[in-house]
């Protein structure tokens, strides 16, 4: 069963599941939500700590990004807690080349930068279902 909230994603991570699978399955659920209110409800409850500071910060960045980009709501309050912000920058590229890091710093969405995570410009892309009509309406504003 796919996780329907970030709380469920964190619980799967705590049990040792890989971040890629748990997050991808959550995104499929999020993008399949019936409307923006339901989608926001998937983000609002604070996930438990995963025992990995990187994942804790990443879940906050994901919640902030999805809330701002798709549900047009303010980010949940829990995302701004200091424990959700990395002390050292995290670059999502396997390359340590200075040019790659510079590109990631430049291209990262603000919601990720605020958690000291540097990634591509559209980090949560998934194939969108035709059922996601509320998203196409909300992004045309």
Describe the structure.
The chain has one domain. It contains seven helices and two strands; from the N terminus they run ααααβααβα. It has helices at residues 6-14, 19-31, 36-41, 53-71, 98-107, 110-113, 133-138, and strands at 90-91, 117-118. The protein has a two-stranded parallel ribbon with strand order 1-2. Helix 1 packs antiparallel against helix 2 (19-31).
SSE order and pairing:
Elements lengths: L5 H9 L4 H13 L4 H6 L11 H19 L18 E2 L6 H10 L2 H4 L3 E2 L14 H6 L3
Parallel strand pairs: 1-2
Helix pairs in contact: 1-2
Defining traits:
mainly alpha; 7 helices; globular
The residue fraction in helices comes out at: 40-55%
Q: What share of residues are in beta strands?
A: under 5%
Total helical segments: 7
Distance between the termini: 34 Å
Low-confidence stretches: 128-141
Radius of gyration: 15 Å
Counting DSSP E segments of at least 2 residues, the number of strands comes to 2
Order of helices and strands: HHHHEHHEH
Structural class: mainly alpha
Q: Write down the overall geometry.
A: globular
- How many strands, which pairing sense, and closed or not: the largest β-sheet? 2 strands, parallel
